[in-house]
Amino acid sequence: MWESALCRVVIIDDPYYPGFCRVILNRHATEMTDLDEDEQRELMRVVFAVEATVRRVINPDKINLASLGNMTPHVHWHIIPRWHDDRCFPNPIWGLAQRTETSMPALIDAIRLKHELAARLGKPTTTTPTKCSP
Predict the structure, then answer these.
(1) Phi-psi bin for 26: left (phi > 0), alpha (psi -120 to 50), beta?
(2) Judging by beta carbons within 10 Å of its beta carbon (0-12, 13-18, 19+), is residue 100 exposed, middle or buried?
(3) CATH number for the domain including 104?
C-alpha cells in the first residue's frame, strides 16, 4: 500500500480481520534496538499513521499493535483491527476462535485506505501494490 526507503506497508489478505496491515522494515534487523534512533522514530511514525488511518477508514472497536518476530525474526509491526465479536476477541487473533459468526465488515475499501495513508505519510516512493497472506 505504501513504501519508503525505510519500510513498507502491506495489507494482509485475511477474511477474518479486514484491514489487517503490516509495517515491514526494508533492510534486515532483528530487534527495534538494532535501528538507530532516527529509524526507530520514523518506523513508529509509520506504525502510528497506519493505526490512525485504519481507525478512520474501518472504524474497528479496538486496534492491536504487535511486534513479535518469534517465527520471523525481522523487524515488523502488525496493525490489527478488532471487533468485540470477531472470531477470537478478546483473545489474540492467533488464539483459539471463540465464535464463528461476526458482525464485523466483510470487505474494506483498500483503495481508500491506501489513499488516506498516502495523505498522512506523503507520496510513497514506490507505486507497486504489495499484498501478503497471513
Answers:
(1) alpha
(2) exposed
(3) 3.30.428.10
